[in-house]
Amino acid sequence: MIVLHARPSPGFRDAVDRVFGKDRVVHVDEAASLDDVAGEITALLHVLTPVTADFIAKAPNLKLIQKLGVGVNTIALDAARDHGVAVCNMPGTNSSAVAEMALSMMMAVLRRTCFFDARTRAGAGWTADPAELDRVGEIRGRTVGLVGFGHSAQLLAPVLAAMGARVVYTARSQRDVPYEYWPLEQILADSDIVSLHMPLTDETRASIDPFTMKQGAVLINVARGELVDEDRLISALDSGHLRGAGLDVFAEEPLPADHPLLGQPNIVLAPHIAWLTPETLERSLDVAQDNCRRMQAGEDLLFQVV
Fold it and tell me: Known catalytic residue: 272?
């Protein structure tokens, strides 16, 4: 049994049927437990709901956990390894979508899109204090620091450069690219915009302290929420140390209705959907279907992590 643990849109359901064949995949809502079908699952198509060690132990026929995306921090990798379960991801499939979301958030924060949208909808588009216009800005002429230089950052960098930004980056190793390599400390201290594109690991968890960033800078996070010290981020936004932020990911997801970030007027928020477009899903399902076929045929799997 192949199970998709998600809350798919009608278009996503149609795509699953088209790629895998109608009714070959069982859909289980992401809010529901997989325990009732654990004994029958051979392949799990995983999106965001954590795959725990307890679940893996209850699934004796499970052979493949296929992440629809890149980050595997929501999967109990050691347990998968111990039980002989392969874990695969799919680098590159969502890179265009993530790069576009990062760019759109940069522009929305700088141009204060949400602020002016709300005023315009309220019929007060031209009544804001003129001083509010002093707080908008352009990408051109700003230094944009990319933290991590994987697929999404590599797509984003030339677009930013074409818009007139100075693009710098940091990564585990320097690349042969036309952008300056800076250590993380310099990226944070000297960039006008910091955009996060790195995985969540023990090393990177809470590695971004907003108060080490440049006064008046913008933070964009389309990677993982736990990369950032959220309490420090809220304080940095409250105090005006940061100009604003664009956040698609959070330490706790979904974001609780009483979370302090929701009261911040100088941020743009999205519910972890930077990766989620119909185009990304089509590409992801093609990889997932091929890996399920390979699993059944006993062939090497694509992008195997465990």
Answer: yes
Q: Which residue among 30, 180, 253, 282 is the active-site one?
A: 253
Q: Which of 46, 197, 272, 283 is catalytic?
A: 272
Angstrom distance (rounded) from CA 57 to CA 251 = 26
Establish whether 172 is a catalytic residue: no
Q: Could you tell me which CATH class the domain 2-93+277-297 is placed in?
A: alpha beta
Residue from 224, 226, 230, 243 carrying the catalytic annotation: 224
What's the CATH architecture for 95-269?
3-Layer(aba) Sandwich (3.40)
Does the pLDDT value for residue 30 go beyond 90?
Answer: no
pLDDT in tens, 66-81: 999 999 999 999 999 9
pLDDT in tens, 120-156: 999 998 999 999 999 999 999 999 999 999 999 999 9
Give me the pLDDT at residue 31, please. 83
Please report, as a single letter, which amino acid is at residue 203: E
CB atoms within 10 A of CB 103: 21
Mean pLDDT of 275-294: 96
How far is the C-alpha of 226 from the C-alpha of 164, rounded, in Å?
31
Number of neighbouring beta carbons within 10 Å of residue 201:
11
Q: Distance between CA atoms of 304 and 306, rounded to whole angstroms?
A: 6
For the chain, the first-to-last Cα distance in angstroms comes to 21
Domain ranges of the chain: 2-93+277-297, 95-269
